Structures are given as structure tokens and as C-alpha cells.
Amino acid sequence: MLGQDLADFVRARHEIVPADLPEIDITRPGVLEPCIATSRADVVIHAAAFTAVDECERQPDVAFRVNGEGTRNVALACREAGLPMLYISTDYVFDGEKPTPYTEGDAPNPLGVYGRSKLDGEKHVRELLGAYWIVRTSWLFGPCGKNFVRTILERARAGTPLRVIDDQIGAPTYTVHLAAALEEIILRGEYGVYHATNQGACSWYEFACTILREAGMDVSLVAPIPTSASGRPAPRPRNSRLAASHLQQQGLPLLPPWPEGLRSYLLREGGARN
Ligand SMILES: NC(=O)c1ccc[n+]([C@@H]2O[C@H](COP(=O)([O-])OP(=O)(O)OC[C@H]3O[C@@H](n4cnc5c(N)ncnc54)[C@H](OP(=O)(O)O)[C@@H]3O)[C@@H](O)[C@H]2O)c1
User: Fold this and answer.
1) Which residue out of 21, 69, 118 has the highest number of ligand 1 atoms within 8 Å of its CB and is therefore the one to mutate?
2) Ligand 1 atom at shortest distance from the alpha carbon of 5
3) What pTM was estimated for this model as a whole?
4) 162 FRET partner, CA 20 to 30 A, in 85, 186, 245, 257?
5) Which domains occur in the chain, in start order?
6) Which residues pair with 87 in a beta bridge?
């Protein structure tokens, strides 16, 4: 999702050399080097990952191979080429026990395999490179690929009652808004760890209700449930809120509030009421 949305966003102003499976498998050492060498790239953005959070619990070896070792391979290729790297990371590196939003300086403590493997990726980036950005984001939705908004709308259109978690809070983030922030971060050139999400926060249940309301659909189709009733194998942070302290310190624009991101997405998809 994000990789394609990001490429679509920046293509108008920058030359993009996309790399994805099956041609480029980041778990294969050395596969990126020739691609980078012929690309004349100024920067490498690494948005590839094994992102199926529950599947990561079942296949920890795959999670660590892709998110940990794969990221190490990307960092090694960047080091060899002398290029800065932007690594996309996640709110799942935190345990969610903090009552307030997590800043870039807070200590990670992932609850599950996905978060641990993404943190492993962060560790490789920090150890291998001096010129890097680690950008943590959360709850992505965007034009390319499967996402929560699309799933809620599809199920609601089919008349399927929805049970949605009400005790995890975070910031839904529109990939196009995130893409704009990533471009700003790179152009500013100040390396380090950044948190970048749409502003504000809600629970998954509140997000689902807002999606249906904005699409002019019946909100009573959605019922709130606690995490304990979800039956999902992977533990998830209760509090996924990320404070964008580094963006603020740099005087970089914050992303718009999440309902604005949702409206932009729905307008683009033709799913908004107005
Ligand atoms: N989605 C979210 O809510 C969220 C939240 C916070 C952070 N993030 C982070 O944001 C980034 C983008 O997430 P996303 O939602 O766009 O994920 P996505 O839709 O699952 O995209 C991940 C991409 O990585 C590719 N990939 C998987 N294994 C690979 C390998 N070995 N070599 C090369 N490419 C490989 C996938 O290819 P296939 O499709 O062919 O498998 C897919 O194109 C990830 O780093 C993720 O951890 C996502």
C-alpha cells in the first residue's frame, strides 16, 4: 500500500525507481546493490515489510527474516552506495501502556513478533548507517491495496454487522498525507527518528463509525467490542498514539487531522456522501 501510494505521490516531482517482489526480494543479500547502482538514486525509501500482524505470531522466522534481516540488507546496500535511507517503522514498537502519546525518545517495548521484528529492523538501520531517517507511523489507509476503511465500507454495503475494537486508540493515517510528510523530512535533510501520523486519535470503533457517517451509511451496523473478545493471536498496544515532537522541533508541517485524511480518501475513492 504505502510504497505504491508514495511512488504515485512523488512521481510528479522526482524520479522514482520502484522495487518490489518478485524482482527484488530484500531477504536475498546483494540483490539490491545492482539496482541501486544503476538507479542514480539520491535516497532509498524502505517501505517493504511482512505486515500481517497475526501471521507474524505464527511465522516469527519469516517476520524476522523480512523485517529484521531484510532491513539489514537494505541498510548494507545503502552503506555500500553511500546513500541515506528512510525506513518506515511502526507504533507497534511500543507496548501501549503509556497514558500519553509516545515521543521519539520513549523506550520501545514491543508486545508481539511484528513489533519486535520491526524494532530489529530499526536496530540494524541505526547500527549500520549514520545517514538515516526512521519514520514511525500508524493505522495506514490509502488508495492502493487493502485497508480498514475499504473493509468497513464493503462489509457495511453487504449488510454484514460489524464488531469493532473499542479499547485500542491510535491515529488513522492517510498514506497521501504521510507521503507529503516523508518528502518534507527528506528535503529538510535532518536525520533521526520521526513520528508521523495524522493528528488526533480515536478507537477502531470510533474510526469505523466515522467512516460510515462520512459515507452516509447506517452507523448502527457497528458494535463496539473489547480486545479480549477479538480472538486475534497477536497482542496489540492499547495506546498507539505517537507525538510528532521531531517534526515540530524541525518546524516541519504536521499532518492534517485524521478526519480530514479520511474525507480526502473517500472523495478520491468516490465513497463520500458529498
Ligand atoms: N499498514 C499499517 O497500518 C502500518 C502502520 C505502521 C507502519 N507500517 C509500516 O509501513 C510500511 C508499509 O506498510 P503497508 O501497509 O504499505 O504494507 P503492505 O501493503 O503489506 O506492503 C508491504 C510491501 O512489502 C512487500 N514485501 C514483503 N516481503 C518482501 C520482501 N521479502 N522483499 C521485497 N518486498 C517485500 C510486499 O510485497 P507482497 O505484497 O508481494 O507481499 C508489499 O508490496 C511497512 O514498513 C509497515 O511496517 C504500516
Assistant:
1) 21
2) 16
3) 0.97
4) 257
5) 2-145+172-199+240-256 (3.40.50.720)
6) 46, 134
